[in-house]
Amino acid sequence: MEQMDLFIGGALTGAKEGEATDVVEAATGEVMGRVMLGGAADIDAAVTAAEAASASWAARDPRERADVLVRFADHLTARAVETATLVSRQNGMPITLSTGANGYFPGLVLRYYAGLVRDAGEPDVRPGMRGTRTRVERTPIGVVGAITPWNYPQTLAAMKYAPALAAGCAVVLKPPPETALDAYVLAEAAEAAGLPPGVLNIVPGGRDAGARLVAHPGVAKVAFTGSTAAGRAIGAVCGELLKPVTLELGGKSAAILLDDVDLASYLGMLPRVSLPNAGQTCHSSTRILAPRARYDEVVDAVTDTVRGLVVGDPLDRATQIGPMVSAAHRGRVLDHIDVGRAEGARLTTGGGVPADREAGWFVEPTVFADVDNSWRIAQEEIFGPVLCVIPYDDEEDAVRIANDSDYGLAGTVWTSDEERGVAVARRVHTGSIGVNHFGLDPAAPFGGWKASGLGTELGPEGLEAYRRPKSIYLPAGSRERTRKDPV
Ligand code: NAD
To answer: What are phi and psi of 263, to 5 degrees?
Structure first.
C-alpha cells in the first residue's frame, strides 16, 4: 500500500520537498506500505489552501455546514471496519477497540457537532447592565493546525476537525509517520461528502513539519495531542505568538478500588480501563490503588487477570493485548520495566517479551506490586502494558496518592456505592474520571489538568475552542426604533 501524495486544496498533490518512509506493521515488524511525509514547503502550501477556502466556509449557513458533516460521517462510518483494520495493522491496536474508536467514534463526533451548530437557536442578544444591549456572536477562529499522535489516529483527529469544521474553520491536519496511511480515508470521505476544496488538508509528517505548522502565521489556532514534552514546546511557541492552543497530553491515572469494591466488576473492565491498546492510551488507569485490608486479594486477582489476557494478532477479535507501535517504543517500555525492578517493585507477572512472539513489538502484560507512589514507575507515563498496585490506608490516603502526580488527565473509582464513588471522584484532580466505568462521550468535555494539558475537546466546550466571542454593543431600544423606521 503506497500513498505518495499529500491532500492539499481538495486534490492529491505531489510533495514539494517531502521524503518517503516505510510504514511498518506493528504485529510483524514487516513493511506494509510506504508514505510521503511533507516538508515545510508542503505545510506552507496546505496553509495557503486552507486560508483560501476559509472565508467562504465560514460564511456558509451553519445548517449547510452541518449537512456536509453528516455526509462526511456517513462516508466514514460506511468504511469503519476498513479504517479500523488499517489503523490496527499500523499501530497494533486490538481490532475490537479500533473498530469502535477509530472506525465509528469519528462519525459520532461529526454528527454531534453537526447537531450543535444546526440548532444554534436565536441570536444571543443580552440585556445590558446599563440599559443598552449586547449582541454576542461567535466567530470562527480561522485556520486550524491539528497535530495528532499514532495511538488513536482517527479518534483524535476527529476530536479536532469535527468541531473546527462545524465552527466554520478550515483545517490542516498533520498525522504522524507511524499512522499516516489511514489519514487518506479522511481525504476520500471529505471529497465524497462535498467538503469544499481546501477546507480539510492533510500533510503527514514528522516533528519539523509539526513545528512549521505551529509557527505558521496563517494558522490561527493549534490543536495538539501528544506527549507532554512536545506539548510544552508547542505551548511555548504559541505563548510567544499569543496563538490559542489546545494541548491534550500524557497521563498516569489511578484506578481507586474502594474497600467495598466488587472486584470482579473491575477485573472484567481491566483490559479496557487499565490496559486499553496495551496501555498505549493516555487515560489508562495504570496505578491501581488498593485498600491495605484487601491488598493481597487485589494483587492476586489483578495478577491472575493480567496473566490470562490474550496477547496476539491485533486483527484477531479475541486479542486483548496487541504489540507496541514500534521497536523504539517497545525499547522504552522494557527500559521502564527494568527501572521498576531496580526500584524494588515486586514483579508478579510479565516483565519481558512473550516467548512465542519473536516477530512484532510485543511486551508481556506486566504487574508490579508493593510499589511506592514516589517511584519512577508510578510517576512516569510508561505507555505500555505495565500496571502498578499501590496500597493505601483509608479513603483520604487514596485520594492523596491519586493526586500525587504531575499529571491530571483521568482516572476511575470502583465501589458498590455509586454516590460514594462520585464523592471520591470529585476530589481527584483530573479533567475526567469514571465511576465503575470509563468512556469518552462526544457530548462531554475531555481535557487534562496540570501536566496533562490545557483546554478541552468534545462537548460544547470543544466547539468554543474554535470560535471567538465578539460583542456588538447596541444602544437601548434601537430594535424598536428600527422596526418603526427601517431606514
Ligand atoms: P509525540 O508528542 O512524540 O508526537 C505527537 C505528534 O506531535 C506527532 O504528530 C509528532 O510528529 C508531533 N510533534 C512532536 N514534536 C513536535 C513539535 N515540537 N512540534 C510540533 N509537532 C510535534 O507523542 P507520541 O509519542 O506520538 O504520542 C504519545 C503521547 O500522546 C503520550 O504521551 C500520550 O499520553 C499522549 N496522548 C494524549 C492524549 C490526550 O488526549 N490527552 C491522547 C492520546 C495520546
So the answer is: -55, -35
